[in-house]
Amino acid sequence: MSTRQKEKALARREKAKAAAPFAKLNLLRMPASKVRLVVDLIRMKPVEEALNILTFTPKSAARSLAKLLRSAVANADAKGYDVDQLIVSNAQVGEAPQMKRFRPRAMGRANRILKRTCHITLELNTKAKLKELKLAAKAPKIKVPKVERAPKPQAKTAGTSLAAATAEASSKKPSDKAKTKA
User: Fold this and answer.
1) What is the mean pLDDT of the segment spanning 145-169?
2) pTM
3) CA 47 to the chain's CA centroid
4) Among 94, 146, 154, 168, which residue's beta carbon has the most beta carbons within 10 A?
5) How do the domains of the chain map onto residue ranges?
6) Kind and range of the H or E element at 58?
7) pLDDT bucket at 19, cuts 50 / 70 / 90
8) What CATH architecture does domain 16-104+111-130 belong to?
9) d(C-alpha 29, C-alpha 64), whole Å
10) What region does 121 belong to: left with phi over 0, alpha with psi -120 to 50, or beta?
11) Rounded mean pLDDT of 69-87?
């Protein structure tokens, strides 16, 4: 390997060490919409509480998510994080390729059946690191001064004088209008 490739590999390794611990599950044979219902229950919860929630959730996605969460905790432990301080900072469920099957129907027709799959990513972090990230994201915004524009000159046309006349008529009191009509 050349020195340039070694430098790139070293930079990638350092970046991976600095990244938060995570776990991915690809091609879970379950629709993403059903998995999202369970993932929403554990997002931004401490790991221990999230595992308890998953244990007692009567959805089939809970079992796969609990296994994935345990894997993410093991990854965090290997990176040197304190497991008791971890929370589920990011949980994403994405669509994956669909298997297409056909069901025979009456009169020689066939209906398509989509067997949906999904990808799940769980990311763990500590509360202290999340606060640091939020503070870094809230950088002070630079205020741009507003430029004052000169008023547009109004062209005098026949329509303008008509508008001015109607404005004058509407500004009169109702009692004045009644006197002029009488």
Assistant:
1) 66
2) 0.69
3) 21
4) 94
5) 16-104+111-130
6) none
7) confident
8) Alpha-Beta Complex (3.90)
9) 10
10) beta
11) 95
